[in-house]
Every structure is written in C-alpha cells, then in structure tokens.
Amino acid sequence: MNDQLSERIQGSRRGFSKSQRAIAQYLQDHPEEVAFMTASRLGATVGVSESTVVRFATEIGYSGYPAMQQAVQEMIRNKLTSFQRLEMTSRNIPPEKLLEAVLGQDIDILRHTREDLDSTAFYQAVDALISARKVYVMGAGSSLALATFLAHYFRLIFDTVQLVEATSEASVFQQLVRAGEGDAILAISFPRYSKKAAKALKYASSRGMTAIAVTDSPQSPLAEGASHLLLAQSDMVSFVDSLVGPLSLLNALIVTVAIRKKAEVVETLRHIESIWDEYGVYEKVEEGEA
C-alpha cells in the first residue's frame, strides 16, 4: 500500500462507518483491482452505493474518487508486470468501451500535466539548455521514442546534440566520458523507471553537468540527480505506457527553445529547406492534386 494512501486510511479509520471499513479493507487487499474500477463497480463489488465510495475518497482527504484512484494506480505501476496490466484491462474494461476509455484517459493525462506543471522550473530548464555547450538526450524503454523525437528537433536548434544509447550501463558512461561542466543532459523516464537513466543523471551531476529530468514525480529515482525537474503526468493504458503528457511537455520545450534562438533557427531551417528542395527529399504535391 502506498505510504500516503495507507496513512490517510489509518488516520481516518476510527471514524469509518461499516460500509467505509469494507471499502478500506477491499482497497488494501485488492489495490490492483481498484486501480481500474469505476466508483460504481467498486461499490457493487463491496456491496455499497457509488455515493458511499465517493464519500469515502473525500473522507480520507482526496478531492474525489478519480484522485484516490490515481493514487492507487501510482502505487501499483512499479509492481505490475506487462501481462498483469493487460489482464487487468481485459477484466475491467468491456471491449466495446476500449476506444473511449483510452482516449478519455489520455485527455485526463494532458489536463493534469497542464495543471500540475511548474512553469518556473520549465523556463529555468529552457535557460539551462540555451546556455549549454553540448546537449545530451537519453531515454530508455518506451521513453527512447520520446528521446529520439526530442533529439531530432534539438539538432535543428543546437550545434551539438547527442542521443545517448542506453544499451548497457557501460555504454552509457562511455558516451558521457567526455562530457563535463558547461554541458547539459536531459534524461526521460517513467514507471517502470530506468536504472540507467537515473545513474546517468547522477554521474552527469557529479561531473558538473546541468542535469534535467523529465519524469512523473519528485519521488522518481531521476529526481535525485537532477538540477532541473520537469514533471509530466504518465499512466498505464493496459500494458502500454501513455506518453501523451510527456510528449506535449517536450513539444513545448522544443518550441520555447526555438523561439528563444529564433534568428539562428530560422537561418538553419532556410538552409535545410533549400537542401531538401535541391535533392528532392520530399514529394511535392501540386495544388488540386488528391
């Protein structure tokens, strides 16, 4: 049980009604089930009304059932294996509701990311990147896609960008061996957290580099080695990591840095567009063509 969630339940237990005690017990015994249950389904499972479940969530200090359920999801994300996630989804979401459920969850993730993001931390990270001599970008697992995306656009903005390949710990340190004071590293990782990313940030920090972590919580192992912490909501959609929140944050980071370096970026883009035209990199579609 998540320490904070457990403390909230224990702190309020004396005032629980019989129905609330039943909810608390089920939550403690079956958190992996509650993580995917609607309030009405949890109520039906325990034998209480939906409104009783909602009141239970507010009674222990949450704004409502979704906030409590999010705490449960965060608690189990590092514990569930991929096949357990898939099994839980198949049991709790009807097949005909999967499209609606996944899109709805992603919308919620984006909203929470926007509401919770520290804008001061964001712009401080922008300043750190702009002043860096060389920028390293790293992501492991599903976060590798985010790191590759970021490195692609950063190469249009900065003179020197290196995408760190996290094939092994030895390989990571080997790629960072010449990095040091004046350089910056941005590492991305979400549950289940990458040990390589966390160790890379600690190493970078010990070398005097500016270390930027893009993750989901101040309790993330990446936070310890970071001089700048950018938090984005992430969640699990079955066995798939939903990364719409982090991707949106990275989009904002790319655009903001590009605008701050507008004169240089415009010149680079003009030059590369002329190269693309000269060598026919992209197929041109004439107006009126289908």
Distance between the termini: 57 Å
Proportion of beta-strand residues: 5-15%
User: Judging from the principal axes of the Cα atoms, what is the shape?
Assistant: elongated
Q: Portion of residues in helices?
A: 55-70%
Q: Give me the number of helical elements.
A: 14
Structural class: alpha/beta
Radius of gyration: 23 Å
Round the mean pLDDT to the nearest integer and report it.
89
- What is the N-to-C succession of helices and strands? HHHHHHHHHEHEHEHEEEEHH
Low-confidence stretches: none
Task: Report the count of strand segments.
Answer: 7
Largest sheet properties:
5 strands, parallel
Strand arrangement in the largest pleated sheet: 2-1-3-4-5
Short description:
This protein is α/β, with parallel strands linked by helices. The protein contains 14 helices and seven strands.
Task: Describe the structure in your own words.
The mean pLDDT is 89. By secondary structure, this protein is an alpha/beta fold. It contains 14 helices and 7 strands. A 5-stranded parallel β-sheet has the order 2-1-3-4-5, sandwiched between helices. It has a two-stranded antiparallel sheet with strand order 6-7. Helix content is 57%, strand content 10%.
Q: What labels describe this entry?
A:
alpha/beta
Q: What is the topological layout?
A:
Elements: H1 3-12, H2 18-29, H3 31-34, H4 39-46, H5 50-59, H6 65-77, H7 82-92, H8 98-116, H9 119-130, E1 135-139, H10 143-154, E2 161-164, H11 169-175, E3 184-188, H12 195-206, E4 210-215, E5 228-231, E6 235-237, E7 240-242, H13 244-260, H14 262-278
Parallel strand pairs: 1-2, 1-3, 3-4, 4-5
Antiparallel strand pairs: 6-7
Helix pairs in contact: 4-5, 8-13, 9-13, 10-13
